[in-house]
Amino acid sequence: MKFYDCAPAPSPRRVRIFIAEKGMEIPTVEVDLRAHEQHGDAFATINPHRTVPVLELDDGRRITNTAGICAYLESFQARPALLGETPLEKARIAEMEWRMETQGMMAVGEALRNRARGFRGRALTGAAGFEQIPELAERGLRRIDLYFEELDSILADRPFVAGERFSIADITALVSVDFAGWVKKRLPEQAVHARRWYESVNARPSARL
Amino acid sequence: MKFYDCAPAPSPRRVRIFIAEKGMEIPTVEVDLRAHEQHGDAFATINPHRTVPVLELDDGRRITNTAGICAYLESFQARPALLGETPLEKARIAEMEWRMETQGMMAVGEALRNRARGFRGRALTGAAGFEQIPELAERGLRRIDLYFEELDSILADRPFVAGERFSIADITALVSVDFAGWVKKRLPEQAVHARRWYESVNARPSARL
After folding, report:
1. B81 located within any domain
2. What ipTM score was computed for the predicted complex, to two decimals?
3. Are A80 and A120 in contact (CB under 8 A)?
4. Residue A23 — φ and ψ, nearest 5°?
5. In angstroms, what CA-CA distances link A106 with A30, A99, A143, A144, B109?
6. Exposed (0-12), middle (13-18) or buried (19+): which is B145, by Cβ within 10 Å?
């Protein structure tokens, strides 16, 4: 396998942490998003959607987003399970992963990409150009506050986002919280449950990646 | 089990089709979104996120979104597999399901909720109120066009969205195409592959639900 990565970007970081938690090592190719390498001709053949992460299998087939890559790796190497084992565990993890992605990652993306100079004309990831919408950046900032409240409330009665075990939902939540730092949002002081959780997941070796 | 549904709404329809394709029957409670029943006190205890679908298990625990419910049902009753069986199949289905949801369902939601009178002050699903952003409605319409192009391109070389077998990605794509009709967008004449696929999946008994 071969992993197309970009060290500073949040989405491939989710997969890097996932791989590390599985105890796997996969050769990596760095794609320079800051130099817009994903929009060049060479990368178009790797992923026409112009995004990382991408996982290339040994037969040359490629999986072009986080959801697909994590489903593959979980199925390829079951333990430690990051998507759950029992029906209820799988349900809770999928439910929470969806919330962490749509309420966390996407809120930050909305806030960042609709106001940062570097994303002018590219307010959405992918091949098509979209202009920034300033009101959407504002909405994103408000959504991050709500996300932090939700995260704190979720973690009031459990050690990890989806229950008793570390899962992909913790990875997406951790990456979302760090990504929110890009728009200067941090877990508030009063979010004591979320802060306790953050300290614990951020202390795992995989979080250094 | 008990299923909280809303007949006209697109998200619970995804789950209704999923249940039917599994050959299961689950008692249903209709929630009247048009009368804002989801914002009433009674529903707050069912799902504080104020959305349907919700699946209630026999022990009273509840799963509060499509991703969680489908993961549960797939794990509870494996066949017919709608999330895939082999690692590669699971990867392709998760990859495509993510695209159908983020590029299809969410684009239509963006177009509809940011301009329809009935969604004023509720431009996002959930408990928090958000004002409409007219530019976002416009962006949503453009994204639907791109989605239809992508769908046509995906289906040029395969019978179903994720490959040789019907999967959850076909369900989400079918519901997205029908949902796009709410903002008067239909698969264009030249999208011959997507139209052939649509005829085939729309002819399944589950599509009547």
Report:
1. no
2. 0.97
3. no
4. 75, 20
5. 23, 10, 9, 9, 15
6. middle
Q: Is the pTM of this model over 0.80?
A: yes
Please, which residues have CB within 8 angstroms of residue B33's CB and are 6 or more apart in sequence? Answer: B6, B8, B9, B52
Same domain flag for A102 and A188 = yes
Query: Which CATH number do you get for residue B156?
Result: 1.20.1050.10
Q: In this structure, which amino acid lies at residue B164?
A: E
Do residues A103 and A51 both lie within one domain? no
* Residue whose C-alpha is closest to residue A1's, from A22, A200, A158, B40: A22
A81 falls within a domain: no
**B72, B88, B94 ranked by CB distance to A87: nearest:** B72
Pairing of strands B2-5, B54-56: antiparallel
A55 strand-pairing partners: A3, A63
Candidates B91, B130, B135; nearest CB to A72: B91
Cβ neighbours of B98 in A, within 8 Å: 65-68
The pair of three-digit structure tokens given for residue B146, joined into one six-digit string: 């791109």
Do B104 and A135 form a contact (C-beta atoms < 8 A)?
Answer: no
User: Same structural domain for residues B162 and B110?
Assistant: yes
pLDDT, tens digit, for every residue of B137-162? 999 999 999 999 999 999 999 999 99
Number of independent structural domains in chain B: 2
State which amino acid sits at residue A32: D
By CA distance, what is A127's nearest residue in B? B146
Tokens matching residue B36: 């804002």
Burial class from Cβ neighbours inside 10 Å (0-12, 13-18, 19+) for residue B199 reads exposed
Q: Which amino acid is at B128?
A: A
Range of the domain at B101: 87-208
